[in-house]
Amino acid sequence: MKKFSKFKRKFNNYMYDHIGLREGLNFSKGALVAALTALLYAFGFYCFVAPSPLVENHATIYGSSITTGGVGGISQVIWMIFSLCGANVSISTMQSIFYFALNVPIVIFAFFKIGKKFSILTLLNVGLSSLFIWAFSNVEFMNKVSYALDNEVTSYHSARVLFAAISIGLASSIAFRNEISCGGIDVISYYFALRKSTSVGKYATALNSVILLTY
Length: 215
Fold this sequence. Notes:
Shape: globular
Helix content: over 70%
Number of helices: 10
Order of helices and strands: HHHHHHHHHH
Strand content: under 5%
Number of domains: 1
Distance between the termini: 55 Å
Radius of gyration: 19 Å
């Protein structure tokens, strides 16, 4: 124990004297967290929120999908408008495109109002989330996993909501713990929380309620 404490003290002193290395390691850690949380978010959305591509069609889509809050929910609203207008577009493709596009102005806002590192890592998270969602829809194995979950594990909406909430909620909370975000409403909530020195939860709940009511 004493040896570990001594090593830790030496390591901290070394990092204190090498600011560039310290910042590089911190950024690398943030990038790794951004990638892992993006993967977790994409998995939660693709497998539990969106219906499986193997059952996705105009007849079954409205009974098979649930919605999330935030920019993901806005993307689903836009996709539903397209669908109601007769467009036959995959929800996964639409989600990956609009999720990224809607996040760009929010990340720009974060760059000027919150911080450069926060905004860069958030943009990395958002970009990877969009890429993973698109990639999952083009991987046969993931399509089969999503189909199995649709028909065997999470055929009840309550179960799908639970698993989606765990996956997406964990992604957001892990990102917040590392001073980054998964984009969208999280950024706006984070900004208000910083300004008012309070929890982000109530702001996220209020904004998400509006999106869910619209859906």
